[in-house]
Amino acid sequence: MRELVDGAVTSAVRDTICAHVAGTFAPAMLTLSDAAVNRLARRGGWKIGVGYRTWISNEVGSVDHAADGLTFTSVAGGNMLSTPDDCSAEQVVAAMTETLTRNSLDEIPH
Prior knowledge:
single chain, alpha+beta
């Protein structure tokens, strides 16, 4: 999905899309991000991705602690980490990476 008009996709829409994808496809993890976050994060292969929304299946691991400014909720058999939509790419990558580290989450088991 690509947002063609700034602000057209609200937080509620982002949350709903991620919850439906997680519930329908049951992936190990999913992220909702933009090109700037993807460039900065440089997480590939089996690494858990980062984005404005990062959902991690309970089978991969649990989230008990979140960096300042992040929220996490139980959604579709996993945990949804969320950053405020007005965060910069740098803030998203830093907060999500810190949260993954604090919860000993780095790679998807394979």
